[in-house]
Amino acid sequence: MALAGKITSEIGVHKTAEKWLNLYSKELHHIQNVAERIHGAKLHQGDDWHANDSVKHWTYIVDGKTVTCHETIESIDVENKTITFKLYGEDIDDKFKVFKLIFEAIDKNDGSAAIRWSCEYERLNKDVPRPYGYMEFCTKCAEDVDAYFVKAEENANK
């Protein structure tokens, strides 16, 4: 049984890929105010939320349980609208040797967009379940953010 793997989920969204990339690359601290399953996030180390060497501390719900971890931005590829986040410490280190979440904002040919989340991981042992709950968490957060964007636009048009 392989201990390493990659799982992916994708969701259609209402705003452009550029708008989504901007949120995750320049306004990440706002996600905690919009996503229901994120209880809190704070800058743990560094002066800038979006610098690669900054460390954020997150508290969130996965699989019905409150969990915590640290996160750093490993890379941002503006051209491909991709951000790689490395998660570690606390609840992550209890189960995984490697844990990365990859965010991709994708423009579709019909003018719509999609958000794709991928999780690359290596479990500590075969008893650790694959992190499907993280894909569900990422999808739910994307749904919450998308609903926020739609509501904000509706309010702006009133």
UniProtKB/TrEMBL annotation:
One of its GO terms (biological process) is defense response. SUPFAM superfamilies: Bet v1-like. Residues 2-152 form the Bet v I/Major latex protein domain. Belongs to the MLP family. This is Bet v I/Major latex protein domain-containing protein.
